[in-house]
Task: inverse folding
């Protein structure tokens, strides 16, 4: 059974994941992986007023937030998703955004953003290229809090593109398997989104 979208207009932010994980599909709630930090980030960034978890995903519309996925098929990772699933998913997502009219579409993961805006060759599916470009408006690179080699942060934040007239925001993937961003970097991106929402 597909994971249900958690949406009720009016929407400030529509969070879009690539596809559900196995645990999310099993329990019927978004971002339910044991190591996923999405819910903690929402609270720590001030996007929700109290700590919540996956079982509370249906409460998000009360705060002007919504959840959906590009591809409905659950998988342990994204490696088995096909280019056609991305293409079909984008078509459906565009219809949803036209219907729901969120102010901001927040793509949860740089990979997802690239799939839609950067590396998809028309008619041939989705292709992922090398590292993201540096952007002045998002500060270029954020240093890792652990003083390790800085991680490119240039594709997180508010983007110049529009998605069906909604503003586009890119967040790091909050999965515990994402070693490209520290928690501090993830939180910086979520806090930036909270500031944009309050404008």
Result:
């Amino acid at each position: 059974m597909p994971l249900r979208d958690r949406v009720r207009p009016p929407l400030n932010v529509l969070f879009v994941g690539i596809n559900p994980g196995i645990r999310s599909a099993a329990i019927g709630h978004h971002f339910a992986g044991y190591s996923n930090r999405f819910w903690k980030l929402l609270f720590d960034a001030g996007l929700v007023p109290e700590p919540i978890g996956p079982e509370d995903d249906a409460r998000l519309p009360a705060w002007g937030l919504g959840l959906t996925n590009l591809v409905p098929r659950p998988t342990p990772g994204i490696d088995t998703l096909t280019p056609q699933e991305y293409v079909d998913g984008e078509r459906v997502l565009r219809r949803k955004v036209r219907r729901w009219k969120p102010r901001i579409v927040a793509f949860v993961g740089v990979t997802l953003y690239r799939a839609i805006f950067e590396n998809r060759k028309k008619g041939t599916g989705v292709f992922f290229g090398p590292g993201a470009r540096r952007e002045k408006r998002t500060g270029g690179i954020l240093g890792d809090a652990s003083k390790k080699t800085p991680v490119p942060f240039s594709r997180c934040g508010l983007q110049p593109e529009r998605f069906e007239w909604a503003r586009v925001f890119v967040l790091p993937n909050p999965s515990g398997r994402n070693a490209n961003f520290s928690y501090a970097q993830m939180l910086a991106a979520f806090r930036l989104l909270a500031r944009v929402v309050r404008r």
Summary: Residues 121-153 have pLDDT under 50 and may be disordered. The first helix runs from residue 22 to 27.
